[in-house]
Amino acid sequence: MPQNINQPSNQIRLTNVSLVRLKKGKKRFEIACYKNKVLEYRSGVETDLDNVLQIPSVFLSVSKGQTAPSQDLAKAFGPKTPLNDIIMEILNKGELQVGEKERHAQLERVHHEVIDIVAGKLVDPKSKRVYTTGMIEKALDQLSSHGGATHKADEGKASGTATPTNGEASKEKAKEMPTWTGVVTTKSAKSQALEAMKALIAWQPIPVSRARMRLRLTCATNVLKQAAKSSVKKEVEEEDAEGESEKLTGTIKDRILSYVEQIESQDTIGQEWEVIGFVEPGAFKGLGEFINGETKGRGRVEVLDMAVTHEGD
Fold it and tell me: What is the pTM of this model?
């Protein structure tokens, strides 16, 4: 004999959803969204809320189909706050709940993107050849397996014969060095690739350096012999403070050439001096600021190649 099953009026069953959850006023509120639409909405790709929300309601538990009582919403968000404003606040500020399968797929996607970016910008310092993505991935795995490499460094210093003062100084220096603990989904692939490159260059699990930029630098000839007034310093300077200070007090031409690691060509055409050469990416910003500040618009920096590499055979 069939039986009638009464579903409570505040219960709504939904399937195949992405949850956005916000804790406020000691209660947890949820909204039910279509899969993949929340990130599209937050990035501006999707603007129609009807395509984002499965249902314009606020829940205490989507999985149980339990909607939030109006008194709970009033207590948490204010008695005069419209439901639509509450939903918007949860959508914009809430934490997106992702299933294990989706999270793994997203992590894999970001991981591959990070590896591709790093492999395209780092080279072997001697041969200037790029590494394969597999070699870059293995090197980063070495860093992450050692907790970003700091633990390995600390253990090595602790077992050495250096004096306690030197040992402590070495440990402090190791702590300040960039670390890598693996890819996360809460940061962009570009920012994580930059962190990965800094860690690889600092710890050198394989010999790496940033692929140099190829630039064309031009300047009016009557400006070149003027004494440089700016105190801008190269970002890559570290060790020889006296040597650098000598370069920094030279002519504008001397200062420009101090940024160039390798000169490909240098020529004077009429009233304009031109040099094509290779510059470390870390020095690019300082070089641009120096030329703009010292030449008053009579010098230019043109990027010919963002990352000069040699492909392996």
Answer: 0.61
